[in-house]
Each structure stands twice: as C-alpha cells, then as structure tokens.
Amino acid sequence: MSEEEKHPLFEKPLTPSDVGKLNRLVIPKQHAEKWFPSPVLGGYGGPVAGDRGLLLAFEDEAGLTWRFRYSYWNSSQSYVLTKGWSRYVKEKKLDAGDIVCFLRHRENVGRLFIGCKRAAAASRSSATAAGHPYLGISSLHPSDCSSHAAGK
Question: What is the CATH number for 23?
C-alpha cells in the first residue's frame, strides 16, 4: 500500500509505564475520542460494549495485523489498549521515549495502521536531562512510521 493512502492520525511518545509491566498503552483522550470508535458505545455508535471494550485491528508496516483490546477505564478515566499491547512492545523492542504512530486509510476510515519510530538518542538524553523527555522529536510523517526494531 502506498503511503499516500495512509492518513496520519497522531503519534504517542511512550512513557515508562506504556512499555513496562502494566501491559497497557494510554491513548490521550483527545485522540481517542476523535479517531477511535467508542469503547463505551461498542464502536461507531453501536450497542454498548460494556467493561470488555472492543478489539481493534491495526496493520503494521510489514502488513501484519495486530489486535488490541481497546477500553475505557472509569477508575482513571483513561482510554487504553491492553490485550495484545505487551506482545507488540516486545516484538518491536520498544522503549520509553520511542513513538507509536497511528494512521488510517484515507478512504476506508475503519482500516487502521500502527507503526513506531525511535526517539533519537541525543534528543532523548538531552531532553530527559532537561526534564522534558519528548522535546526534539520531529513531527509525524507517514514515512517515519516504520519499525526500526531490527536495527536496535
């Protein structure tokens, strides 16, 4: 699939808890509500999904499908990807400071894509030293959303 068919939605810099033992990725509320189906309503206005959330499928840069449980946690008022997330982190060898990119197909808006990119080592160390771990990371471009796990 050509990159022109993919529309960038947002990027999420990973925190230590996103890649740690909590086995979940917190999706910023503004992005969750704008781009993803409602886990509370059961999708795009469908029946109530309940506490179990929804299964969302994303294609990576290699064409592999990754399925994650997407839920809303009332206790923390957070949108999260859970089941399947820890496997993605391990397979892609993701670390805190790396970025996960979310995209969708330009015409088939239900078709979702996921990619990752590494935070530049220099940007990460100098920004972390300044107390701002995500400064200096460039904005998202579709061509940036590819896995670099092999080079790590």
Answer: 2.40.330.10
